[in-house]
Amino acid sequence: MESRRLMPKILFMGTSEFAVPSLAILIRNGYPIVGVVTQPDRPRGRGKMVQPSPVTIFAERNNLSVIQPEHVRDKEFLDVFRNLSPDVVVVAAFGQILPREIIGTPPMGCVNVHPSLLPKYRGAAPINWTLIHGEEKTGVTIILMNEGMDSGDILLQEETLIGPEETFGELHDRLSKMGAELLLKTIGMIVEGAIKRIHQDLSAATYARRLNKEDGRIRWDNNVADIINLIRGLSPSPCAYTFLEGNKLKIFTVRGEEVSITEPAGKIGRETEKGLHVAAKNGYIYLYDVQLENRKRMSVHDFLRGYRIAPGATFE
Q: Quick one: 183 and 256 in the same domain?
């Protein structure tokens, strides 16, 4: 009975790459994983080939039992859940809303690793919107889940400053590792009975909705800072974009300069050491790293060696 108290049986629920470090740290520290629940294999990548999730791949490499329900509310999965009888459920970037039975049954609760300083940026895309809105700090929050959207009591929280040029991909990877470390600390404190629950301030809650394709389209009549934040917040995926002579051009890396200008927004200027400069509302955006549809990602200097932009051209 003592070993059960010290090493609770964990059911892990996660899908994306963000969840992998959390699962890995539990395995490294000897926690018994009774099962790994993840989304079914789906079309992924440019070729839209059916592929397993990153969590599926990692779990199978570690000889863990993988369960891939289409819907966790289905009777078949709930029967499996009851038979597994976990002491605690750990959720990280899973992708489905959990029913009351899963949230309320485990004796030690159902905890979630969320990459924001809750109650800010609840929802599906907190890292993206944190960067798009130009926040200077963010963090990771471990909550005891309830039936609301990321509204459960805070168990532990850790903040970090955001680098001035940090992209979504870089911040995502950093927060996933932070989240894993904080999860491990949280589980330990739950076992010891040392955790304290803090209610979220509902008046301070904001929502980070799922991104759609139109969110990535660059409006060149916006301020330099807003355009840079959009590009950082979507790089390297799903990526901000514009249109050049009817062709979609993804933009990964830029720099900006706020100066008084007279050119119309979106007008393409000359190539410089900083990159290809484009007029915005209050200055210039210098494109450095781009990808034209059906071509490879490359520096803008390499791109311009093979693509001639007409003088006076403007991004649509």
A: no
